[in-house]
């Protein structure tokens, strides 16, 4: 995986104004957190595929996969339960807000892990 600066900036701008958001590099990507819980991120796969990653929770996976451009998230041969990859070409500004809302619905209910740094 590799960092995708443009997708990171799109996600960063869409998250602007939401309190308690932080970010850090993880797994060769940039991940964004709410109260220390991963919300999502963006990267380029080893094959160069650009993609967003959103944490929707196990209960939200079926709903998420019904949306355009979504597919199950996998790292190698392992499924990332409760996460989906989203094709950025299927994710205009309005759709990106919808993905963030869906991820926040899940992450908001989780207990805070750490005091985040404001980005």
Order of helices and strands: HEEEEHEEH
Whole-number tally of structural domains:
1
Question: Strand pairing plus helix content: what structural class?
Answer: alpha+beta
What is the helical fraction, as a range of percent?
A: 25-40%
The average pLDDT score comes to 91
Number of continuous helical runs: 3
Taken as a percent bin, the fraction of beta residues is: 25-35%
Q: How far apart, in Å, are the first and last alpha carbons?
A: 23 Å
Second-tier CATH architecture: Alpha-Beta Complex
With strands numbered from the N-terminus, the spatial order across the biggest sheet is 1-2-3-4-6-5
The CATH topology annotation reads as Aspartate Aminotransferase, domain 1
What's the CATH class, please? Alpha Beta
Radius of gyration: 13 Å
Number of strands: 6
Indicate the overall shape.
globular
Pick out the low-confidence regions.
none
The biggest beta sheet is recorded as: 6 strands, antiparallel
Organism: Thalassobaculum litoreum DSM 18839
Protein name: TfoX N-terminal domain-containing protein
Pfam family, one: TfoX_N
How is this structure best described in words?
InterPro entries: TfoX_N. Residues 15-105 form the TfoX N-terminal domain. It comes from Thalassobaculum litoreum DSM 18839. The chain has 119 residues and is α+β, with helices and mostly antiparallel strands. The chain has a single domain (5-107), classed as Aspartate Aminotransferase, domain 1, CATH 3.90.1150.30. It has three helices and six strands, in the order αββββαββα. The protein has a six-stranded antiparallel beta sheet with strand order 1-2-3-4-6-5. Helix 1 packs across helix 3. The protein is globular. The mean pLDDT is 91.
């Amino acid at each position: 995986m590799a960092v995708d600066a443009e997708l990171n900036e799109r996600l960063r701008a869409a998250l602007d104004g939401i309190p308690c958001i932080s970010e850090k590099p993880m797994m060769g990507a940039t991940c964004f957190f709410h109260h220390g819980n991963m919300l999502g991120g963006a990267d380029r796969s080893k094959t160069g595929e650009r993609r967003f990653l959103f944490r929707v929770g196990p209960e939200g996976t079926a709903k998420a996969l019904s949306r355009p451009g979504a597919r199950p998230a996998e790292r190698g041969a392992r499924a990332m339960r409760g996460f989906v990859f989203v094709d950025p070409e299927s994710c205009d500004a309005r759709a990106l807000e919808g993905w963030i809302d869906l991820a926040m619905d899940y992450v908001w209910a989780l207990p805070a892990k750490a005091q985040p740094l404001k980005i």
